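We modelled the chain as a single entity of 225 amino acids. Its sequence is:
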Amino acid sequence: MAVTDEAIEKIKAMIVSGELSPGDRLPPEKELSDRLGLSRNSMREAVKALEVIRVLDVRRGDGTYVTSLEPHLLLEAISFVVDMHDDDSMLEIFAVRRMLESQATGLAATLGTEEAIAELVAEIDGIDASVTIEELVEHDIRFHRDIVRMAGNAYLASLIEHLSSQTVRARVWRGLTEGGAVERTLSEHQAIAEAIAQHDSALATSLTTAHIAGVERWLRQAASA
């Protein structure tokens, strides 16, 4: 194992063991390197690497701290990877999203509170087929985000949100201009919301699978055109 990787593993072990908790300040560089039996240079490189993936927060003139370690921080790099991929790779990304989000929607139908469901219905009622593509994208983001949050799993919610970043959605919806696309999307959203409101987990799961698969089909056709 490279010395930098060893340094990363040792700092990670301190966090996993609870020796360092979210928000804690790391010991000074020299003290930490001596304590872990590593050079200051390898320690410095390890800190840089852990800062990039949002495990550590280096505050110039103050010190280095463990971040909150919340899912949205730790999974942030995924959206960058997604945004950098081409349309062929988007098909694979949508396949992952379909598998995860369909199950999350089933959980939402089981666990969603009346208040959360009412907010979802209000989101549907607040939009119609006269919207622009940009407005539809914004609605789509809110609609799917609200549903996934009902599942009550912060890691799942963050993972799906980063897989479904706005850049990906915009790139997809910009091309979905064939006749009836807006009406079809809103109709499918309505059906999913109704299934959730009825706490019909199986139906909500199936409808979401079909909804996302429809975009996958369009992408596949567009890629082969």
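As a brief sanity check on the tokenised model: Strands lie at 56-59, 63-66. The chain is about 70% helix and 5% strand.
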